[in-house]
Amino acid sequence: MRRVALALTALAAWGSAQAFDPLGSERLLAALPPPGQLPLDAELAGGPACPAPGVDTRGPISLGEVVKRALCHDPRTRQAWAESRLQAARLGVARAAYLPTLTASLSEARSGQTVSQGGASTRTDAGTRSTRLDLGWNLFDFGQREASVESARQTLQAAVASQDLGVQTVFLDAANAYFGLLAAQGELAVAREVERINLESFMAAEAKHAAGIGDLTSKLQTQTAFAQAILARVRAEGALRNARGRLAVSIGESPQRPLTVEADDARLPDTDFVKGVADMLELAQQAHPELRAARARLDAARARSSAAGRAYLPTLSLSASRSHTGNDYAAAAVPDLAQRDSRVALQLAVPIFDGFAKHYQLKAAAAEVELASADLRSAEQRVALEVWQAWQTLQSETEALAGTEKLLGFATKSLEVAQGRFKAGVGSTLELLEAQRAMADAAQQRINALASWRATRLRLAASLGRIGFWSVREG
Predict the structure, then answer these.
(1) Domain count, the chain
(2) Distances (CA, A) of 269 to 13, 172, 407, 456, 475
């Protein structure tokens, strides 16, 4: 018996190991790379390792590298993985109800008794050793365990889908941080160029005033515009530092790390995934992880409702036990005693009355089903609206992108003409300042349009449930 107890203890210790999964509850997790490996994209299957901490600051960082590091170092990805592991373990608990339970116990006690009578005393010492092995097995319960396992399995499905959604959220946040730094760098470049142009205009007005061919008003107006350009450049530098800090933190680095990104307007990502709006709406309804999670939660609620309905039914269980008890007495006059007991029983448990607890549990389960059904409908509407808005916005941003390119060209040409006229003495200061403002506004609108187009394209891919590393490669 002692050997049996030791063997069972060793088995329990073995079962506590994380890698041990005798009931197969973590099979759904096999397709999910654990922390330390990159998710998304079939080409990355097989467990490529995450990039090591630290970013080489000697050159610009790419959008793909930003996303990789964010997925590896953002705590939300680890939280989503841990949630999936938690639900897998709960599925294992539900499946364990089909198996018998075996418990071994071992106890040893010492006792002593002293009896005094007529000046004489007698002491009796005894030792008791007891071993016991109990078996319990639920043989039949009219599908209660089956419903519980199905509920746990669907809850795990929801957790896996939620992990996909969490990964997409981290992906999108990192990309938006990248685009934010990209826009901030462009805005600073524009601010510096506007400052240079205003400085040239101020120096030209000052030279004309010194030569006596320009008035003081023109000089002061250009000087004011130059001071405003300096202020805009200082603010753009502050915005750039904030954008750098945000991007650095999103990839697990210190906000003090000086990151740069490289912009190339001629290499925009493809939009081959953009189809007709009806096709995209249908694709989103099938593939979006939020909807997959909501459907799994609804199925889990239905399974719990089924389990609650079957709780009124009886259960049939088997129990068996075997025990051995031995008493050793120190006194020679008292013989040792050994006792062995064995028991096997079938038990039918029929619930009769529990204070209406099962009744209200069934009502609560039915309400959970209604709630999960409403949540699914709400998610379907929300995803459909996301797809529609992202698609419409992308159409508008595509047209705006072409318009800002023309606008910047016109504004640049207009500024060149105004500068020439001002230096020749035939153009007014107001004409020059207006041309400068128009050029600065056009350059700013171009930067904003590029950043908005890129972000909207990714948002559309995410709303379809299709976001991946393919979506951050430039064509």
Answers:
(1) 1
(2) 53, 15, 22, 12, 5
